[in-house]
């Protein structure tokens, strides 16, 4: 069997620093490593060399290019990409950071700007995106796609997306339109600030996905244009979604909407404890929660704990105590 090239040698060839994450004495051969990077080329090299349990640590500075990770971590040995908000991944096109099959990654603290899309997770389970800033993109900010299950986006800020002027550019996009094979289930979108300048819905949950949790976020719909039906902060087309404890301001029409794009989808959404300010909305409905698909076989529940200022009311269905 041909011997493997040591990780230290691979990283040294790229000018990278490697330190043990654990004690400095008698560290095991396969100990988790901290890989310090300060240039775009070093980052690309680290993304190809990283192993489960490792951490890539970015120095402050600008990293220009498109960055792709394909090596997965494991549930017990996650891979971490971390830096401060002054570590900025800047793309001229394409994806800023593409987690392609890179399951069990944590992306923490960094800023991603420019390009077509900010962070794209494809077939990547258990991805955690925490305390990042994503902005100034042609299209959407963060996208969980190709059955990327159990993804988490939390404590982050997304603004100024959809700058190509086509009325697209959601802040957060879960699933794929009209594709029921994309089971990007159980996405958790928690305690984020989304907007201003988001050129589509702040959050779009697509048909085919189940179990999303949208909790504790702050929405600013000032970037909504009305093109491609982007007239609300959140549009739910998946099943069994919880929308709870969010606060929204500035929308062109409604606060939240549910739709059935494909039979059997857009069902089971629960709205609870959301605060909606529809002041200035000019659409034809102007409801905090507009439900287009409530029936005996496709229930939506709007609790009385939701509140609304301005507009024409809380919802168009019977409110649940």
TrEMBL record:
Keywords: Signal. Residues 96-169 form the Right handed beta helix domain. Residues 1-26 form the signal peptide. Coiled coil: none annotated. It comes from the Bacteria. InterPro entries: Beta_helix, PbH1, Pectin_lyas_fold, Pectin_lyase_fold/virulence. This is Sheath polysaccharide-degrading enzyme. It comes from Kitasatospora albolonga.
